[in-house]
Design goal:
Largest sheet: 12 strands, mixed
Distance between the termini: 54 Å
Number of domains: 3
CATH superfamily of the largest domain: P-loop containing nucleotide triphosphate hydrolases
Structural class: alpha/beta
Number of helices: 22
Radius of gyration: 34 Å
CATH topology of the largest domain: Rossmann fold
Strand order of the largest sheet: 9-8-19-18-17-10-16-15-11-14-12-13
Length: 663
């Protein structure tokens, strides 16, 4: 009766698969159907962290082999009224048996004598061996809900080793192991369970065909890392994750996605490789912004406003000048100038320091105007950038002192500049006087070296000066700031926005990554303050993340560090890719919940990953040796241990449905 009520209590539990399996194993053993059994062997030694299993060649052959990394289940030979449960093991290596030396001696003697065959008794002795396995934890029923199971990373008790048997799991039990703890909502198939890189069947027995699923709830508001050498599938996993979010939110548009596409592979199809882009798979839900429009990809312009972000744009100008091979000394001096941000200048108190900072930006503006860059002067005035007294603002007046004005203009009537054209003309007069009267007392101490570098580029004695910036006008738009609000609006509407930065320099990519990351963070923070977050999330995708994230472990002031520390609170998730874990700030890595790891060629990188995330400890050699594209070691927030998975290749139809495809 006790057994009857116990069985009835767990009738609807997922662990019913375990009791059915053990009953079937018992029937097969009694009937002598050993080839149908999944029995692996007995426990030789057992601890809380490791187990040694004694097994035999016929057992391994019957289950199709037991490769390193295999999942095994260890169950007591009798539940004795306890709820159904099992301990999960992962094979890590072979192990010596108490008779290993005797076996080796026998092998030695046999080979020395070149015996052509073994008698049946010797075969029986030599076919036994042992395996060492990690104890990953225990699956058991939820005591408050019979239809749920729980996984714990430890075991509640161990008894004598002879009380346990070890089995290779069936497809149903593998399904339980791999997907049993994944959140039920928003599930999506990501690939197939793949225990080994070698696909050759053992004893004509193929491994179970087990789907691996993830829940997109594990990505929303969480940090996800992609590690591994190039061309091994990191970008493909990113596409699958982005697709999974698109598919699971198509009814509520609860997640907006922003992808910084540095290679143009998410926005544009690649017919040569047969790759379909995310945009063409989901045209109604994706928007593309491109620096350089591509013929077959509908997009909106992605431009910079060189006037309004002087601190960010001067490094971009330097990069563009270097690419154009502009190496004259006065050009290098100009491009090395450090300009303050307009926000920092406006935060300064009135006085000479503020006036000098404003003047430096105004000289930079005059250079852009002379080069032919259009400006919206109304927008520039709205920035509030003024020098001198706050009571007498003039947005284009450099506020030179009276001695400079008197020396430059003499008896000519002077009126302070009110437009960019007037500012340009005014500075041309001042620079002309400075070049002809370098020792004049009126200009002594007025200009520092950065000012002089800007003025020499503005009106050079030799060379093109500001005119050499004209080829870069293609990147400029005086209304460019408006695209930020459009992108934020699209993200709030659940759209996936792809920034095609495929033809951009590293500085331009950095500019747009920093700009939009700050805007997204500020936008979500404001929604949080106003209690308007609801159930809406924004997901950011970064490639070559080591170029963006801070290297210093103590630098937590930047926006990327704030994503790691506060992103979950503000419903911001991010997916970042890089080849090497060691290039990412350790504190940021410590906040990462989800990992996808492909092949690494450096032992130091594999060890660095294992130190960071203990679940990868013991898998270093597997990561170093396997290099099949799409073959990943996966750990998500739902999973408590590493799942080896062959990720599906992204092959979506135009309607957005997933088509299975081999690599």
């Amino acid at each position: 009766m006790k057994s009857f009520f116990s069985d009835a209590e767990h009738q609807d539990s997922p662990l019913r698969a375990l009791t059915d399996f053990l009953d079937q194993e018992d029937r097969n053993e009694k009937a002598g159907r050993y080839d149908d059994m999944k029995f692996i062997g007995y426990v030789l030694d057992l601890g809380f962290d490791d187990a040694t299993i004694i097994t035999s060649d016929p057992f391994k052959k019957a289950v199709g082999g037991v490769p390193r990394g295999s999942f095994l289940i260890m169950a007591p030979d009798s539940l004795e009224g306890m709820p159904p449960h099992f301990t999960l093991l992962r094979v890590k290596a072979t192990a010596p048996t108490p008779l290993s030396r005797d076996v080796q001696q026998t092998y030695f003697e046999l080979h020395k004598k070149s015996m052509p065959a073994l008698d049946i008794w010797t075969k029986g002795e030599l076919q036994w061996g042992a395996l060492s396995a990690n104890v990953l934890g225990m699956f058991f029923p939820d005591q408050s809900d019979a239809e749920k199971i729980i996984f714990s990373g430890d075991v509640n008790n161990i008894v004598s080793a002879h009380r346990y048997k070890v089995y290779s799991p069936t497809k149903e039990l593998l399904e339980l192991v791999v997907n049993g703890t994944v959140r039920q909502e928003n599930q999506f198939p990501i690939g197939k369970l793949r225990l080994t890189e070698c696909s050759l069947p053992f004893a004509n027995s193929s491994p179970p065909d087990t789907n691996v699923r993830v829940s997109t709830s594990d990505f929303r508001g969480f940090r996800t890392a992609m590690f591994g050498k190039t061309r091994l599938g990191k970008s493909n996993v990113v596409k699958i994750i982005a697709q999974s979010i698109l598919e699971t939110t198509k009814d509520d548009n609860s997640v907006g996605q922003l992808i910084f596409d540095i290679n143009g592979e998410y926005a544009n199809d690649n017919p040569q490789d047969g790759n379909k882009s995310l945009r063409s798979a989901y045209p109604a839900r994706c928007e593309v912004y491109a620096l350089t429009p591509r013929p077959n990809t509908p997009s909106m312009p992605l431009k910079l406003n060189f006037y309004e972000q002087p601190d960010s744009c001067i490094p971009i100008i330097r990069s563009l000048l270097e690419q154009a091979n502009q190496t004259a000394q006065y050009v290098r001096s100009f491009s090395s100038v450090q300009l303050p941000s307009i926000g920092d200048v406006n935060a300064m108190k009135p006085g000479s320091l503020r006036t000098r900072a404003v003047r430096r930006i105004q000289i930079y503006w005059a250079i852009l105007k002379k080069a032919g860059f259009n400006a919206d002067e109304k927008r520039l005035r709205a920035l509030g950038l003024t020098g001198g007294s706050r009571n007498a603002p003039s947005h284009f007046d450099p506020h030179f002192n009276q001695a400079v004005i008197q020396a430059v203009y003499g008896q000519q009537q002077y009126q302070s500049p009110r437009t960019l054209d007037e500012l340009k003309t005014h500075l041309e007069k001042v620079e002309s006087f400075r070049l002809q009267n370098k020792t004049h007392s009126a200009i002594q101490g007025v200009f520092d070296p950065d000012d002089e570098a800007l003025l020499e580029f503005f009106s050079p004695t030799l060379g093109g000066g500001a005119r050499i910036l004209r080829p870069f006008m293609m990147y400029h738009d005086p209304q460019a700031g408006h695209f930020v609000q459009k992108i934020l609006g699209a993200l709030d509407g659940g759209k996936t926005v792809i920034l095609d930065l495929g033809n951009a320099s590293d500085d331009i990519r950095q500019y747009f990554s920093d700009l939009l990351s700050r805007e997204v963070f500020s936008h979500q923070e404001q929604k949080f303050t106003n209690n308007n977050l609801a159930n809406h999330f924004i997901q950011l995708y970064f490639e070559e993340a080591h170029n963006l994230f801070p290297k210093d472990d103590k630098d937590f002031t930047g926006v990327y560090a704030r994503f790691a520390k506060e992103g979950a609170k503000f419903h911001i998730g991010m997916v970042y890719s890089t080849q090497s874990p060691s290039t990412i700030n350790k504190e940021l890595l410590a906040q990462t919940e989800n990992f996808f790891v492909a092949h690494m060629s450096s032992q130091g990188e594999a060890e660095s990953l294992a130190r960071l995330q203990v679940q990868f400890d013991g898998l270093q050699q597997d990561i170093l040796r396997t290099r099949t594209p799409g073959y990943m070691r996966m750990l998500t927030f739902s999973h408590r241990f590493i799942i080896p998975v062959q990720v599906n290749k992204f092959e979506a139809t135009a309607a957005g449905s997933l088509a299975e495809s081999n690599w």
